[in-house]
Every structure is written in structure tokens, then in C-alpha cells.
Amino acid sequence: MPAPDLASLCDDLEAEHADLDTAVAPAEAAAWDLATPAPGWTVRDQIHHLGWFDRNAVLALEDADGFASTMNEMVADFGAFESKMAAEARSMSATELLEWWRAGRDRIIRVLRHADPALRVPWYGPPMAVASFTTARLMETWAHGQDVVDALGVTRTPTARLRHIAHIGVRTRGFSYAIRNRETPEGEIRVELAAPDGSVWTWGSADAVDRVTGPALDFCLVVTQRRHLDDTSIVAEGPLAGEWMSIAQAFAGGPGEGRQPGQFAHT
């Protein structure tokens, strides 16, 4: 399958924004303070997080030095940064926060649509191509959106946009080991996922002994650490596949705590 162009990636990111908006906008004000499965994070924290990083993404695209300054400030005292984020999230009413998030995500879409595809975007790790950067924003929106819908008791319909997240999940196998200061074991893993439309998405050699199979939705939930492997229908055959799925992490940052087995019903 050919790589998607930047315009189609922006369309998908915009659609992911709209999908989450549909879930959260009807919620009553009190629901914005519901706890999400991420310890210490409420619905408003999740939406504020997305809005803040959308704004910082614009800075990364338009002002690399300005972005570096904010990143250095965050890294210098992460505890203070988290406290500041929490205070900002709680300083706005639900209506104000919703409109603030909408304005920020509209801006990042506009900036991405006009970005030079050859640009290397600085971020929290190695600089990324604009297309990869856009895909990463989609993954973040979907993953944090999962925490929101879990808190609200809303079920989202899986879409073809999951392919972007699954692709990142496959490509970050080595990263999952690196952040734990471990060497990636040699050997290829075949990944076969049942797509929402009934087709099958594949990565890796068909001859690989180790295999990961199951619904694309479940795979994306595992690699973004929104579900424990035991609470999904993902099957990991072989030691390489089993070990990878136990530590899979598609997002930047330190090793995540993930979710506990049995935290969500196995559907």
C-alpha cells in the first residue's frame, strides 16, 4: 500500500478531531471532571493535553527555537510543568475548554496543510518528517480520546484511520526495547490485523515464525497502552511476538504503566 500523502493525512487527523468532538461535546459540565483510566487524569486533563500539544506542534512547525525553549523548560522541571498543565485545565469551564481545544486543533490543521513536506519537525525525540509528525498527532488524538470515551462510557466505531496507528505500532518495536535499555531481539515478526472493513492489514514477511494476529482495534489499543494484552483478542505466537506485545509502546516518553489485566472486559 503506498504511503498516504500529506493532504490525506490532514484529512484523517481532522476527522479524528471531529470524532472525539462528537463524543465529548454533548457531555454535561460535571462529566469533564470524571476520572479517566489514566491515573490522576480527568476528561478535562485529556482534552487540555491534546490542545496544549497541538499548540506546541504549531510552534515546532513555525519556530524551532521557540519550541526548543518550551521543551527545555518542560524537561528542566517536569513536575512544575505537570502542575501548570493541571492548573490551566482547571481554570477553564467545560465550554471554554471545548472552544479552546477546537481553536487549537483548527490551527494545527491549517499549518500542516501548508507545511513544506520536506521539513524536518523538531519534537520530543528525533526530528520527524511532516507526514510522520501528522500521523503522530493522529495517534495521540486517538489514544487520549480513548481515555475520554472510556470515562464517558462512549463506544467509538473503528475506522480505516486505525491503519496509521497500527503502522506506528509496528515501526516502534525497537523503540519499545530502547526506552527500557534493552536490545531488540533479532528476528522478524509477521503482523496480520483484521481491518474494520473486513480486509487484512499486514506487515513483515509471510514466512516469519513469530506472528501477531487479531483485530486492528485491539492491536492499536495494546501499542498505545490503552488495554492490557489479556483484555484483547490479540494472539502473539512465538517468544519474539509475546515479548514485544508485553512491552509495546508507540508513543514517546518513558515506559508507560499501561493498563492492568482485567481492567476492561474482554470483548
What is the CATH fold-level name of the largest domain? Four Helix Bundle (Hemerythrin (Met), subunit A)
Oligomerization: single chain
Radius of gyration: 18 Å
**Strand count, sense and closure of the main sheet?**
4 strands, mixed
Q: What's the architecture of the largest domain in CATH terms?
A: Up-down Bundle
SSE run: HHHHHEEHHHEEEHEH
What is the CATH top level name of the largest domain? Mainly Alpha
Give the CATH H-level superfamily of the largest domain. dinb family like domain
Q: What do the pLDDT scores average to?
A: 95
Secondary structure: number of strands: 6
**Residue runs with pLDDT of under 50 for 5 or more positions:** none
Structural class: alpha+beta
Terminal CA distance: 30 Å
In short:
The chain has 267 residues and is α+β, with helices and mostly antiparallel strands.
Description of the molecule:
The protein has 10 helices and 6 strands, in the order αααααββαααβββαβα. It is of the alpha+beta class. It has 2 domains: 147 residues, Four Helix Bundle (Hemerythrin (Met), subunit A); 86 residues, SCP2 sterol-binding domain (Nonspecific Lipid-transfer Protein, Chain A, 2-Layer Sandwich). Helix 2 packs across helix 3, helix 2 packs across helix 4 and helix 7 crosses helix 9. The longest helix is centred in the middle third of the chain and has 23 residues. It is globular and about 50 Å long. The model has no long low-confidence stretch (mean pLDDT 95).
